[in-house]
TrEMBL record:
This is Transposase. Residues 56-124 form the Carboxymuconolactone decarboxylase-like domain. It comes from the Bacteria. One of its GO terms (molecular function) is peroxiredoxin activity. SUPFAM superfamilies: AhpD-like.
Amino acid sequence: MPRIPGVPTRRAGWLAKLLYRVARRRFGAVPEPATVYAHHNGVLLTWALFENTLQRAVRRLPEGLRELVTYRVATQVGCSWCVDFGTMLQRMQGLDIERLKEIDSYADSPRYTGIDKQAIAYADAMTAQPPTVTDEMVAALDAELGHDGLVELTFIVAVENMRARCFHALGITDQGFTSGEACRVPVPSDKAITMRRG
């Protein structure tokens, strides 16, 4: 359970109820971050609009590369929710999720292309504390992806750092999207919240 209990449908405002309904149709369950963000309508709306706009805006990079670096950041930060949800998205998009098992040895794995390896190394360098991005990394990626591709890659990595760090801090953990178990508990029940407060 997250550190702040999610808002159950019965107690949710109209905006949260609407977003819960859309999420259920799209993913089969309500993502737990939505239930936690539902405590603050401004944050919930901003997050929903941002994610929807982002999905429409990032079209320069191949989908597999975008999802790969997103997944890598999630593993580096330690956000099990992001790893779970990201794996489900890759599966839904028909991407090779088997290669994710070799993400920690990507540099030597034949399952990753040259650009995959460069992008993962860049994601690692951006995620490191402090960041360790070099001029050489940027120049190599710019030569491969172009200015627009490099900007998109950089933005995707930064966004996933924000998501993963926020969800990790709030104690939002894997929800069962990868295993198909997420549908069983899509939104916290009133009883669960009462027990937690109790």
